[in-house]
């Protein structure tokens, strides 16, 4: 409840900033003209007619209340990532962070047992993930699952550096 109230306050603050911008940009125009020019139902998936944006390009500002509130799960007790007996607990917690992956990336990750094939570390460890093609598409490789893997950004850079040197 606190986050939704905060989002409402942020939306109200943004609305005042939008009005201020519109009035500053067009000081001699009426409120009706400004409203017609800048606000409307720009996001076709919502019923909100007070969306600020450019009607010609279709670009608009998102509202804070449109974003889902994600609750974070607290760490239980005095659990430490250094405790080997809690390895499974921490593994399950890290898997929750995979919600930002696409369905295809989740399939790739699960096929790899959630490990980077280059360094052997967990895929979900806070590092940026990249899709690597074993046979590059520029050399006729396909986008099939058998030709792709998920790797960490640094591991991906190492692969391509070795390919450039010809040691791979």
Task: Offer a few descriptive terms.
4 strands, mainly alpha, two-stranded antiparallel ribbon, 2 domains, single chain
Task: Outline the structure in words.
- With 168 residues, the protein is mainly α.
- It is extended, with a radius of gyration of 24 Å.
- The termini are far apart.
- It has 2 domains: 2-66, no CATH class; 99-165, no CATH class.
- It has helices at 2-25, 31-38, 87-96, 103-111, 153-165; strands spanning 39-40, 51-52, 129-133, 148-152.
Secondary-structure class: mainly alpha
In N-to-C order, the SSE pattern is HHEEHHEEH
Rg, rounded, reads: 24 Å
Q: Name the average pLDDT.
A: 86
- Described by the principal axes of the CA atoms, the overall outline is extended
Work out the count of structural domains: 2
Strand neighbour order, sheet with most strands: 1-2
Which consecutive residue ranges, at least 5 long each, have pLDDT under 50?
none
Termini distance? 54 Å
By DSSP, the count of extended strands is: 4
- What summary fits the major beta sheet? 2 strands, antiparallel
Strand percent estimate: 5-15%
Helix segment tally: 5
Give helix % range.
Answer: 25-40%
